[in-house]
Design a protein that fits this description.
With about 325 residues, the chain is an alpha/beta fold. It contains 14 helices and 8 strands.
Length: about 325
C-alpha cells in the first residue's frame, strides 16, 4: 500500500512524498522526476519494483518544490543546488537509515549530482547505486533540439527570455486550454517514434500542476550545471545511464559523457526513443534499474526483519 506524507523543509516548502514498502527493507530506491513533471512519471517503475522485489526494496518518490502536489517556493530557491539540499532533507526525514539507490530522470538526475557535490559525506554514507535516465552533467552543452545550430540559438534565446518572464509569475499554474493546444509541441519535444496517448495526457497533467515560477525559475540553473568532476570522484558505485537516440533535450552525448566520467556505468541507448524513457521504454529502464539494485543487494548486509508489531514508519 502506498503511504502519502509531507516533508516540511527549513524554508517552509512542503514536499509531497509517496512511499511503498517497509521501513526496514534491505534497500530503498528513491525516484526523482524531471523538470515540470511529478512523481507520477515513475508509475511503470513503481509497479515493477513491487512485483519484482516485494518487501526487499522500499520505493520513495516525491514531487520537487514547485511541482505536482508540493508547495511553491521563493524564486531564489529555484536552483539545482537547492534541489540537492532538498534530497538530503528527504532522506533524513523519510529514509533516516539504510542504503539507497538514487534514480533520476532529467532534472532529477541533475539533482542527484548536486546532492553528491554539496553533501559528499552524506552521499557516500548512504548511496549504494545510481541510475541516470535521460539526463546530463553538462547543462545545455549538447542540447540542440535536433535542429541546426542557428535555429538552436534562436530557440535558446526565446526559451531563456520566456523563462525569465514565467519565473516572475509566482505560484500560478499554466492554463489547461493552453496546454491542450500545446500537446503537439510537447509530443515533438519529449517523445520519440512511439507515444501512447495516455503518456501525453499524464505529461500534460504534470505540467499543468507545476507552478510558472518553477517552470521558468529552474531554467538558468539547469542550463549552467557542470558536474562531470563530481561523477568522476564517486568511485566504483554500480550505475546505469539510459538515453533515447531521438532525445532532443539530453541527446546521447549527455549519457556518453556520464559513462565516461563514471566508468562503472552501464550505458543503454534506446533506438527511436525520446526524452521520456520511463514511459516510452519501461522494459529497458526497469531492466537497468533491476541490474543496479541486484548488485547493491548482493553487497548489502542482510538485516533481521522486525515483526509488524514492532516496526515503526519513518517520520515525515
Amino acid at each position: 500500500m502506498t503511504q502519502r506524507s509531507e516533508v516540511r523543509l527549513p524554508d517552509g516548502v512542503r514536499l509531497h512524498v509517496e512511499v511503498t514498502g517497509p521501513a526496514d527493507a534491505e534497500l530503498t530506491a528513491v525516484l526523482l522526476h524531471g523538470w515540470t513533471l511529478d512523481g507520477r512519471s515513475w508509475h511503470h517503475q513503481r509497479d515493477e519494483l513491487r512485483r519484482r522485489y516485494g518487501e526487499r526494496v522500499r520505493v520513495v518518490s516525491y514531487d520537487a518544490r514547485g511541482h505536482g502536489r508540493s508547495s511553491c517556493m521563493e524564486l531564489r530557491t529555484a536552483t539545482l543546488a537547492q534541489l540537492g539540499d532538498d534530497l538530503a532533507g528527504v532522506l533524513d526525514a523519510i529514509v533516516p537509515s539504510g542504503r539507497v539507490v538514487l534514480v533520476g530522470h532529467s532534472m532529477g538526475g541533475m539533482t542527484v549530482m548536486e546532492y553528491a557535490h554539496r553533501h559528499p559525506a552524506h552521499f557516500a554514507a548512504r548511496t549504494a547505486g545510481l541510475v541516470f535516465v535521460s539526463t546530463t552533467a553538462e547543462g545545455h552543452t549538447h542540447t540542440a533540439y535536433g535542429l541546426s545550430p542557428r535555429i538552436t540559438r534562436l530557440i535558446r534565446l526565446a526559451e531563456t527570455t520566456g523563462a525569465g518572464v514565467l519565473a516572475r509569475c509566482g505560484s500560478w499554474r499554466p492554463p489547461h486550454a493552453l496546454l491542450r493546444a500545446l500537446r503537439p509541441s510537447i509530443r515533438w519535444m519529449l517523445f520519440g517514434d512511439r507515444c501512447d496517448p495516455a503518456d501525453i495526457r499524464l505529461v500534460t497533467s504534470a505540467v499543468a500542476h507545476a507552478s510558472l515560477r518553477s517552470i521558468g525559475g529552474f531554467r538558468a540553473s539547469i542550463g549552467a550545471q557542470h558536474r562531470l568532476d563530481t561523477l568522476a570522484a564517486l568511485g566504483d558505485l554500480p550505475a546505469a545511464a539510459l538515453v533515447g537516440d531521438r532525445d532532443r533535450l539530453t541527446p546521447p552525448p549527455c549519457a556518453e559523457s556520464i559513462a565516461a566520467a563514471l566508468p562503472t556505468t552501464e550505458l543503454t541507448v534506446c533506438p527511436g526513443a525520446g526524452h521520456m524513457l520511463m514511459m516510452e521504454r519501461p522494459e529497458q529502464v526497469n531492466a537497468a534499474l533491476a541490474a543496479v539494485l541486484d548488485r547493491a543487494l548482493a553487497t548489502a548486509p542482510r538485516r533481521r526483519r522486525r515483526s509488524p508489531a514492532t516496526a515503526r514508519p519513518a517520520a515525515a
